[in-house]
Every structure is written in C-alpha cells, then in structure tokens.
Amino acid sequence: MTSQRTLNRLFTLHSWAGIVTGLLLFIVCFSGAVVVFKNEIDLWANPSLAKLPRSEKPASLDAVLTQLQTRYPSATVETIALPDAVNPSYFAFVRERGAPANARTKVALRSDTGTVVGPVDSQLGQYLRMLHVFLFFGPRWIVGFLGAAMLVLIATGIVIHRKILAELFTQRWGRSFRVVMSDLHKSAGIWGLGFHILIATTGAWMGLAPLFEQGYKFITTPAAMAPSQPVRKAEGSEPAPMQSLDAMYATAQQAVPGLEARYVSLRRWGTGTAEAGFTGNLSGHLASTARVDIHAVTGVPKKVHDPRTAGFWSLVNSLMEPLHFGDFGGLALKWLYFFLGMTPAFLSISGTLIWLDARQQRRREADAAHPASAGNAIAAG
To answer: Hey, how many other C-beta atoms are within 10 angstroms of the C-beta on 9?
Structure first.
C-alpha cells in the first residue's frame, strides 16, 4: 500500500514533469498525430501529383535516373523514392551544383514512363515530420527525452489514480472547472493508456537509443587505436562506368529476400567509389530497417542488414518506427493513430489548466486568509 507521503511526492513529480514539458509535449504529440497522414498531406498540398497515373508496372530505376540526369545535367541525384500504396509517383532529391549542403530540390516523376514532372511545390507533410522528429532543428534525443518524460507521467499517473476502473466512467459535468477538467484528464489518460505507453516507449527508444549506442562505442573503443589513414582527395574521383540500378536492386533482393525498397540512395555517383543503398521494408514482416549497400562499379554488396538475422536488438529497433507511426495497417489504422494520438496533446493542455486553476485557488484562499489573520493580530494588540 502506497503511503500518503509517497503519493504526495509522486503527485508533485507528475505535476512538475507535465508543466516543464507540457508545451513541447503538446507540439510533438499534435504534430505526431497529424504526421501519420504525411503522404496524404503531401498529395493534398500538391493536387497535380494526385492526378498522375498509377502504373501497375512502374518504370525502371535506370529510366528514372536517365530522365533526371537529362533534365538536371549539372545536379547530383542523391535519393530516389519509389511509388507506394499512397504516392503513385517516383520522387527524387537532387542537389544543384554550388547549392548549400541542406538545399535539395524534391522532384516528381511519372511512375509509368519515368518522365520528370517538375519540382514539388509543397512539402508540408515532410515539414510536419521534421517538427515531430527533430522540432525542426533540434537533435532527435530531445524528442526521445520527451518520450521518457511521458513514460514518467504515465507511471506516476497510474500510481496516483489507483481507482482506474471507477475513473473510466467518472465525469462530473456540473462541478467546477477544475473538477470537470480533472475528470476529463483522468478518463482520457486511462482510455488511451495502452496506446500512450506504446507511443512513449517507441519515441523514447528512437530518440535515445542512438545516443546510448554512441556513448557505449565511445567508452568501449580503446583510446590507443590508430586513426585511419585519410583518403586521398583524388582517390576514386575519376569517372567510372556504373552498374544498372535495376540489376543492383535485384542483387539486393537476393541478399535480403523479401526486400521492398522505399528509397535508393546514390553516393559519389559516377566515380570509382560510388555506392547505391537500397532501404525499405520486408514483405510480410513489420520490420522497416532492411538495407543493402552495393558497390556501383562492381555490383557486389558491401553491407547487408537484415533485421531478421541481425540479432534480437536489431529486430526490436526495426519494429520501432512502424509501431510509432502506424504506417503498416492502411488508412483505418492511421485514423485510429490520429484520434488516439490527439489524447496526449489534450492531456498536456488539460494538465496545465488544472495546475493553473489549482494555483489560482490557493492564491485566493491565501488572500482571503490574510485579512483575517491581520485583524486577529490587531485585536490581540
């Protein structure tokens, strides 16, 4: 049985954790609820893209790359996104010569012929994702920390509100503002409890796991290790013939059976050290981090990552993003994630309003008690 003193401390921790992180939690949770429709939002913001034909047999990757190089001869093609269940088109990210490091142009291409349609006018869905994952310009561990804070709020809330079954259906509409908001706060938190634990855990994992991994490598790497020899600037920079992208994709699918590439990344393309990376999902599996890097000159795989065979923690890591964003169950699951994802945003607002109302109530009580104490002091004198 939890003592009253412990409950008071947990209530204080719950209140201040919510107040300190409330605004950022609202931004992250609200943007996260909306960003499940990232692809649909991008199509809505670019109506012309939704009208493009969907091809049963999309154009080859080689045809897409040729069209891009013809249309943008002085630009570097960095990434090609393949058509999926929502987007009927190819997309590519190209960087013009002399452009800043973070300045890339998103280009749409027809899926049936690979013909370049032109630059995408709006990337609203991607901006929302950047807001949710990085708060635009922050490191991802900040959002991971917010996920950990959300877990603290959940744990303390469960201990504080022990009569969970009774509070599921408790809503006293005729009472004061604080009582009404408190009932809404508790019932919303309880009804969405399982979803909130899932979102907080996966968000904390994706944000903080890389940080801990880097720290572990830093601690366990011997300081006396000799630094690697710097690569000469001219090494591998001479033009070289590239293997077919489609042939390399077939090689990647042989290396990782069931690979359904979503993105093809091109690095140092056209040189002797060029690489093509195929990243995507696995057919019939929830994992989303399968990747094969292939030497573009020889067509030989350099690095293969199959989460099904890479160990337990690698498999766990590959499940985090699908579980967090709900992009594996179609439109119905996205709507479920949207409505349940709005509840943490409501909890952050309602919790702040409850705290502010309680603070004002205490101030009014103190002001009311002050004249009485002053009058007693005068009478005693």
So the answer is: 12
